[in-house]
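COMPLEX REQUEST
Ligand: (6S)-5,6,7,8-tetrahydrofolate
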Amino acid sequence: MGALPNISLSRRLRRTPFSDGVEAAGVSAYTVYNHMLLPTVFRSLEEDYHHLKSAVQVWDVSCERQVELRGPDAGRLMQMLTPRDLRGMMPGQCYYVPIVDETGGMLNDPVAVKLAEDRWWISIADSDLLLWVKGIVYGFRLDVLVDEPDVSPLAVQGPLAEDLMAAVFGDGVRAVRFFRFGHFQFMGRELVVARSGYSRQGGYEIYVEGWDVGMPLWNALFEAGAGMDVRAGCPNGIERIESGLLSYGNDMTDDNTPHECGLGRFCNTQTAIGCIGRDALLRVSIEGPVQQIRPISISGPPVPPCTSAWPMRAGNTVVGRVTSAAWSPDHETNVAIGMVRMTHWDPGSELTLHTPSGQREAVVEPAFWN
Ligand code: THG
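STATUS: Structure written out below.
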């Protein structure tokens, strides 16, 4: 086999306010997410993993782009987009919200940030949600402006995240609760700082408003964290599978309902009046899904990266597919996320998995590894 080719860089593949810092820190691999660079590895996937679980990392997650809704119809529009009931949501809160189309198919699984009654950010996963939202606004003649503002999230994740954030923003950040946000000063600017992030190691996300604040904030975090072994990091492919954090485009697509994705707990289809796709979801919420995402362990040595859905069989019948997989150093087995048919989704169910490195035994686990 020849070496894998490089990806050519160009203007279409957007850099971020932190790219200079990321490259100086020695990024060794990127992926593309929302047409933007997203680091995936610094030292090695495993070294990054151990460090994330023991210290603190600064992540350039600018690719979590914001779709901003501004105007009198912003709240109504937000409720049209999601089957999660938003009536109890207050400014200062973040909600993980499935976004579905008219058939109940998943379009995105973002974090909604309620800045004010008439101003929201939708912090999107990897699909062009802006186009769907602008189409709805135009079609329904809603009184709301929709655009992608100059906002780039920077995540601070790991057990020492709170100490590092307090060193830069003051002790006030310690009081921010999970999926809440506050406004904190940096360089004379008010930034939204939320307790959230794409890991289960604890931490924050800073919604960096204004490209020019990017590198000064990046540098301030590394100066303040010198005694904490702070490093540049990124969402870690091993940790996020252990944690059961889903990846749109990998673990789910618009062919899946939220219920198939195990996101039924974020749907209130009965009371989410006005939600597009509500009728379709009412049907599946009554009957239940016939396939669902499950934690899967895979026997044998480390598997290669999962770049296509690997079929799982019971006898000769395909009864599921693994969509993400990685070797877990802490659990000393391959951990994975897969979509499994109802007949074989119970914990302990043993299936035959076909990977590029041969046939393996796959077992449906009772829970993710956190
Ligand atoms: N943070 C922000 N934007 C994002 C992500 C993020 N956009 C892209 C992507 N990640 C969206 N996907 C997710 C997936 C999972 C979670 C957040 C965003 C998440 N889920 C927790 C869970 O499932 O247990 C908590 C959900 C809850 O309790 O409300 O955190 O990471 N800004």
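REMARKS: The chain has three domains: 19-64+150-240, 66-147, 290-370. The longest strand covers residues 317-328.
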